[in-house]
Amino acid sequence: MEEKLMIPKWVNKHNELYTAATRHPFTLSIRDGSVDFSAFKLWLGQDYIFVRAFVPFVASLLLKAWKESDDDSDVEVILGGIAALNDEISWFKREASKWSVSLSSIVPQKANMEYCRFLESITSPEVEYTVAVTAFWAIEAVYQESYAHCLSDGAKTPEELKETCQRWGNDGFGQYCHTLQNIANRRLEKSPEDIVLKAEAMVIHVLEYEVEFWNMSRGET
Q: Which of 180, 44, 206 is nearest to 116 (CA)?
């Protein structure tokens, strides 16, 4: 039977890239316990910068949902995401203090700057809600799948990193990502082909940027 929902279809179609993003050597090293803590500290500082850039993107998505969505509950779902980001920024500050990472002195690396510029481009009013919410799902899903794998059976995740993995790998966040996927699938099902193609290209871009971000965290350029 042919897969009708677009997101599962794309995950299957672009499986090599999706796997590269969700089973990257950086998070696999957390799972098997071989992670270099200096790499984790590098990720921590860079991701703090990214999350701060992520906030205006999600805020712009909220506005797009309010203007364009065919379902009022979309606004509530995205608003929940914004509320969670406030807690997430506080968590980064606490974690940075624990690991002696000075967030005020972090300089964004090339992969991070490029990803943040990409995020900013999606805030444009010209980017349709369907395309933007699909990107939101992809960004969140990569972290959810990556860190949930670090908590699954057989994982040897260091005790010091279990809280990090729990933050994105927990079942509640998994449900949230599933809700975002349902929103994206619903919108895509009703969209013309040009919007569907834009959304697919957006997913590919997100996955590529995610791989580069993980690479950066391992000291690769």
A: 206
Identify the CA nearest to 7 among candidates 164, 115, 145. 145
Name the catalytic one among 140, 200, 210, 212: 210
Whose tokens are 């590269």? That residue is 20
What is the pTM assigned to this prediction? 0.96
Q: Fill in the amino acid letter for 119.
A: L
Catalytic (active site) residue 210: yes
The helix or strand, by DSSP H or E, that contains position 147, with its residue range, turns out to be: helix 129-149
Cβ(146)–Cβ(156) below 8 Å: no
Give CA–CA dist 195/172, Å, rounded. Answer: 30
Per residue in 62-74, pLDDT tens?
A: 999 999 999 999 9
Strand, coil or helix: 70:
coil
